[in-house]
Amino acid sequence: YRTNGTCQSPRIPGIGWSYFGADPEEGYRQAKQLTIELEAALACFDVKVTSLIQSSLEVVPRNLHKGLLIKPLLEKVMNRRGGRLPGFLMVCGDDPSDDKMVETVYEVLGAASPSAGLNACRTFSTCVGKRNCPAQYYVNDVEDVKSLLTSLAEAATTAIPCPPATASSSSTAPATPGYVSPAAGRARGVSEATLVDVVGLHL
């Protein structure tokens, strides 16, 4: 039995089934039934059935998430800088699969030693779209992301001095992100030197 308007597609970490083009009620009903059947059939495997993107199901490895990528990447950057954190760090994502990446960033920052330069690390975690997530800020859409990055680049070109940052004793960010306008990068001020070691991810 095939639901009209649906399709399956291979993904990098697994396989996905989309019902975006189906009748909303029928697609949702079939998705619930498929979830039950897949969980029963795959119970002995180390995978999970999840809905990371609207109107879709994915079968992915249970313990695979983007946080596993960002941690060694940050460690590599710190090793190149003699154990110090980068001067500027931005993590941006648009779906729940990015939450682990954001959480891992704050775990790394929370575990950093005083000599790692936490006070000098300007960190921005941004969610695309407004929803409950670990990010500090949110923007409305991808166009806002582009405008924000443009503003940061312009601020770097003008070499505006960075105000001193305050170290946080918590390794987690606020649960409800605050809106950051596309021009916020210019207003906050990011010097050209701090952008030399930028780690910007939008996966």
UniProtKB/TrEMBL annotation:
Task: Write out the GO biological process terms.
Answer: trehalose biosynthetic process
User: Would you indicate the residue range of the signal peptide?
Assistant: none
Source domain of life: Eukaryota
Gene Ontology molecular function terms on file: trehalose-phosphatase activity
**Which SUPFAM superfamilies does the entry mention?**
HAD-like
Which portions of the sequence form the region Disordered?
Answer: 163-183
Q: What Gene Ontology terms describe where this protein resides (cellular component)?
A: cytosol
Where does the record place Low complexity bias?
Answer: 163-177
Pfam families, per database record: Trehalose_PPase
Q: Which InterPro entries match?
A: Glyco_trans_20, HAD-like_sf, HAD_sf, Trehalose_PPase
Question: Member of which family?
Answer: In the N-terminal section; belongs to the glycosyltransferase 20 family.
Q: Spell out the protein name for this chain.
A: Trehalose 6-phosphate phosphatase
* The organism of origin for this protein: Spumella elongata
